[in-house]
């Protein structure tokens, strides 16, 4: 290496050191003209860039709103169908039908008092009480075709023998036209003769006819739930940012679910500040004419105010979803944007909104920059100087990063959204390692702390099929890094891409190793949350081929701590391999969620196909939640016992799956028996693919 400067650089330095002749006057004018043209070009370019960025941001926000709306609607439809099937199942219960017949006979002969005292009342409550304890229902009712209350849950016995009002009977008539349906929210006591209306308690429910011996129904079964619980929770599965809210509404423009803004509505006096008051049926989705949160006092009564723009648009056209990106006032008078769709099959609409200021916050700096572009032009030279200094410092930092303590970075072998992976060597041991660098420029401080915490957890794992963490730390420049074993080999994703479906005994050999790794993690209270083919590598260790290593515990969750590091409304993982319960309630998971992912990987290995396919991640996520997983035997010939095991792993209910990794290992070994995947089998495959271990 020479320290002599190249001749070109010497000449350049010499030329810059000589005096230059003054520019002729016409050349000065030309310079001024060129500068003016340049400034005009910059202004026009700024205007063009501003418009393009604004269009791009609007497009992204529009897609986000539509995605959130469709996710919430899909979750609502799935929940509604489950509840409908539930009430139909109970209405078909033979014992319930017998008790209903007896109460109908007594109702035609006796008094309300006799009906209330009938022993069948106790039997009905004993029959239906379990569902009230397990399914979040708070009550039930059985109503005859004439609108007479035949039976109710404990605490409402005074309603037995009461009749529905004419309006209530009209609503009841629609129940007897179909099997299984939902009852929109209503006030407690509404449509019941001689019953006091309680406007601080709202109810909703699901109903079904109780079939008789002929086509004529005996009565109707009603199962009651509070709308502010599951109904509202389902609608809040996905929402945008800190101010986003998703809610249901009826044709009158009344809110049917609760809202995340409830406490704000109470603190500003829009709703009474009492513990029992909810937004359901109390909030009218009408434009007040000004921002109520800033003290605006409308002079128009509620009935005279127009519906908000979003609700009016959705009610006027129920053929499609509507997205409004122009700012409009919501029911609080706050400028928002939103998306909504009317669902005629449920006779309700779903809307999602977010404060416009938050949604378009990315545009504000651009707008400011555009209007001060002239001032920025004067600072251009200073900016160039600062830029050159920054570039030089960044170059110095890059050079410094190449040496991390005892590790020397050699070449980049991978890059992701949050960092880069380098091959490195220890100064003394000289063994190859992999070093992952995660910079604060890529992730925020909170996520950086999460990575450090999760590396600490992963480094405690000692199972031979888990990737080993050697070291971790911070550089002086704030770059977090961790050192792990270097694994030459092939990940399962590439294996499937290369070979397609693999033999069952090889799949079992791989799955047993993966379950062994997860078993140790589960024993320590850790859940991987991102088991997928890309995170499982086949390599060679100690002369053993087809040695599986489980990677990327970067999404691991520690069940032993109350701290949840997942960003709100975000579900970590890869859609085709995420367990259904994680999509419904991301915080309510346990180790059985990993077992679902193991089943999805097994399906992938044995069929060469993904478990679910779709046009987008949202399509796949919906299928995971709403559809029964296909069986391996639908695509390839496989042992019935292995087909059944994988099907159990892919059950939507965690309780229906195997309850531990050891249970899967034991069943796999029993299924394969003597037909194990041997080292001779493995060597034959690797001899045909030596490039993966090069």
Write a concise keyword list for the protein shown above.
Beta-Lactamase, alpha+beta, five-stranded antiparallel beta sheet, six-stranded antiparallel beta sheet, single chain, Phosphorylase Kinase, domain 1, Transferase(Phosphotransferase), domain 1, 694 residues
Written description of the protein model:
The chain is an alpha+beta fold. Among the domains are: 92-225, Beta-Lactamase; 383-486, Phosphorylase Kinase, domain 1; 489-693, Orthogonal Bundle (Transferase(Phosphotransferase), domain 1), CATH 1.10.510. The protein has 22 helices and 20 strands. Strands 10-11-12-13-15-14 form a 6-stranded antiparallel sheet, sandwiched between helices. A 5-stranded antiparallel sheet has the order 2-1-5-4-3, covered by helices on one side. A hairpin with a 4-residue loop joins strand 1 and strand 2 (149-152).
């Amino acid at each position: 290496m020479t320290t002599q400067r190249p001749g070109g650089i010497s000449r350049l330095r010499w030329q810059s050191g000589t005096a230059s002749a003054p520019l002729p006057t016409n050349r000065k004018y030309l310079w001024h003209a060129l500068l003016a043209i340049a400034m005009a070009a910059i202004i026009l370019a700024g205007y063009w860039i501003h418009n393009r960025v604004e269009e791009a941001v609007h497009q992204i926000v529009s897609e986000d709103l539509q995605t959130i709306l469709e996710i919430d609607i899909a979750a609502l439809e799935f929940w509604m169908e489950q509840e409908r099937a539930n009430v139909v199942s109970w209405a078909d219960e033979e014992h319930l039908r017998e008790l209903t017949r007896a109460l109908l006979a007594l109702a035609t002969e006796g008094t309300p008092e006799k009906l209330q005292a009938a022993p069948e009342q106790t039997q009905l409550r004993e029959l239906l009480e379990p569902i009230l304890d397990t399914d979040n229902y708070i009550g039930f009712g059985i109503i005859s075709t004439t609108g007479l209350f035949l039976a109710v849950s404990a605490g409402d016995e005074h309603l037995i023998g009461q009749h529905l009002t004419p309006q209530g009977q009209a609503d009841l008539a629609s129940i007897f036209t179909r099997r299984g349906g939902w009852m929109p929210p209503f006030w407690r006591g509404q449509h019941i003769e001689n019953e006091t209306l309680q406007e601080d308690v709202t109810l909703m429910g699901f109903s079904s006819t109780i079939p008789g011996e002929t086509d004529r129904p005996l009565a109707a079964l009603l199962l009651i739930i509070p709308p502010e619980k599951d109904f509202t929770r389902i609608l809040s599965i996905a929402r945008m940012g800190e101010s986003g809210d998703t809610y249901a509404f009826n044709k009158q423009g009344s809110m049917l679910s609760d809202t995340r803004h409830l406490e704000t509505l109470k603190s500003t006096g829009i709703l009474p500040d009492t513990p029992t008051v909810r937004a359901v049926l109390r909030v009218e989705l009408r434009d007040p004419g000004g921002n109520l949160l800033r003290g605006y006092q409308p002079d128009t009564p509620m009935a005279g105010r127009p519906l908000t723009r979003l609700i009016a648009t959705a009610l006027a056209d129920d053929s499609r979803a509507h997205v409004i990106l122009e700012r409009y006032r919501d029911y609080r008078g706050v400028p928002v944007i939103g998306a909504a769709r009317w669902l005629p099959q449920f006779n309700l609409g779903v809307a999602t909104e977010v404060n416009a200021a938050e949604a378009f916050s990315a545009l504000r700096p651009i707008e400011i920059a555009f209007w001060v572009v002239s001032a920025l032009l004067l600072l251009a030279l200073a900016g160039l100087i600062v830029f050159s200094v920054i570039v030089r410092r960044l170059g110095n930092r890059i050079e410094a990063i190449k040496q991390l303590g005892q590790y020397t970075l050699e070449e980049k072998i991978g890059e992701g959204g949050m960092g880069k992976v380098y091959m490195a060597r220890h100064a003394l041991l000289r063994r190859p390692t992999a070093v992952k660098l995660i910079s604060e420029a890529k992730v925020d401080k909170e996520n950086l702390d999460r990575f450090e915490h999760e590396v600490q957890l992963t480094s405690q794992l000692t199972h031979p099929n888990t990737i080993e963490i050697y070291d971790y730390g911070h550089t002086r420049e704030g770059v977090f890094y961790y050192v792990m074993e270097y694994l030459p080999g092939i990940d399962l994703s590439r294996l499937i891409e290369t070979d397609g479906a693999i033999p069952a005994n090889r799949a079992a050999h791989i799955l047993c190793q993966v379950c062994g790794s997860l078993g140790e993690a589960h024993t320590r209270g850790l859940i991987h949350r991102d088991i997928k083919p890309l995170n499982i590598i086949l390599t060679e260790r100690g002369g053993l081929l087809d040695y599986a290593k489980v990677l990327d515990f970067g999404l691991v969750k520690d069940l032993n701590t109350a701290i949840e590091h997942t960003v709100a409304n975000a579900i970590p993982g890869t859609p085709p391999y995420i367990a259904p319960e994680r999509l419904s309630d991301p915080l309510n998971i346990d180790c059985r969620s990993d077992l679902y992912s193991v089943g999805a990987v097994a399906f992938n290995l044995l069929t060469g196909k993904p478990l679910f396919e779709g046009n987008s991640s949202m399509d796949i996520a919906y299928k995971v939640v709403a559809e029964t997983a296909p069986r391996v035997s639908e695509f390839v010939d496989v042992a019935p016992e292995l087909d059944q095991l994988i099907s159990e792993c892919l059950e939507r209910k965690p309780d229906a799956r195997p309850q531990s990794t050891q249970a899967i290992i034991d069943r796999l070994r029993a299924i394969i028996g003597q037909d194990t995947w041997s080292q001779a089998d493995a060597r034959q495959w690797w001899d045909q693919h030596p490039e993966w271990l090069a």
